[in-house]
Design brief:
Distance between the termini: 23 Å
Largest sheet: 12 strands, antiparallel
Number of domains: 1
Number of helices: 6
Helix content: 10-25%
Number of strands: 14
Strand content: 35-45%
Structural class: alpha+beta
């Protein structure tokens, strides 16, 4: 359980997905092969190469980890993305997720430490997450959301198709003259599972589609976080500084998830 900024107790957020992104200096000659094994402790189950993009993926299998689902590392010259997702969209089991947000993000960060020591020179760091709290219906979702956005109580109390996006920039405490982007998107959504039809008429996989309108599927308060260091920064950071910036962004996301729209 977490405490909202209104002082009331709210259920913990579940993570639908987690992401850590690193922007590297120059085009570089980094070879991402072996990165997955360094983090996951096992070989990837699938390797995909398309042009300059190399992607390694595999299931998270550790019983000690609070996370489950699939780990993906995707690299193109100048950028590396580490992602945790739940590829299955079984709505009968509730909203698909990769585990609790707070402990899951902490474990995700810990697992990347060996890779951070070998990563290409890094200019920027970003942390992303899509979080949800299940609610019985859209009305209950709006009431829950107001606990995190009390300043909008009169404005959204009887609103529909609710979506709020705001970026509250904040000075980094790790590096002077580097302002953090704290982009947050708040919404109340209903989920619908749709079947994707592949060209030729064959049935494809079921895809989970969130909607801010009417839905017969599960409903949730949803928070999307996109936190990053300043795009204007042009010099590579020291490896220990990259880790500190990553921790600072994660702490900013934890604060938003706990307290709501904080300045």
């Amino acid at each position: 359980m977490t405490e909202s900024n209104s002082g009331s107790s709210e259920p913990a957020w579940l993570a639908q997905s987690l992401r850590m992104t690193f922007f590297h200096s120059g085009t570089g000659s980094a070879t991402p092969r072996g990165w997955f094994s360094l983090v996951a402790g096992k070989a990837p189950e699938e390797i995909v190469e398309r042009g300059s993009r190399v992607q390694e993926k595999g299931a998270i299998a550790s019983p000690e980890s609070p996370l489950h689902g699939q780990l993906i590392v995707s690299h193109v010259p100048g950028r590396t993305d580490w992602i945790v997702i739940e590829p299955q969209a079984d709505l009968s089991k509730g909203i698909p997720n990769v585990g609790p947000y707070a402990t899951g993000m902490s474990e995700f960060r810990r697992s990347l430490e060996p890779w951070l020591q070998e990563a290409p020179p890094t200019l920027r760091v970003a942390v992303g997450a899509t979080l949800s709290q299940a609610v019985p219906n859209m009305e209950a979702g709006r009431a829950r959301l107001l606990n995190y956005l009390p300043g909008l109580r009169d404005y959204i109390a009887d609103g529909e198709d609710l979506f709020l996006q705001i970026n509250r920039r904040r000075q980094s405490q790790v590096i002077d003259d580097n302002r953090l982007n704290r982009l947050m998107k708040w919404s109340v959504v209903g989920f619908v599972a749709i079947d994707v039809v592949i060209v030729g008429g064959a049935a494809g996989p079921e895809v989970l589609q969130p909607s801010t309108g009417a839905s017969t599927g599960p409903h949730a308060v949803q928070l999307e976080l996109d936190l990053s260091t300043a795009a204007e920064w042009k010099e590579p950071h020291a490896k220990d500084t990259v880790g500190k910036l990553l921790d600072e962004l994660i702490a900013a996301g934890n604060e938003i998830a706990e307290k709501g729209d904080v300045r």
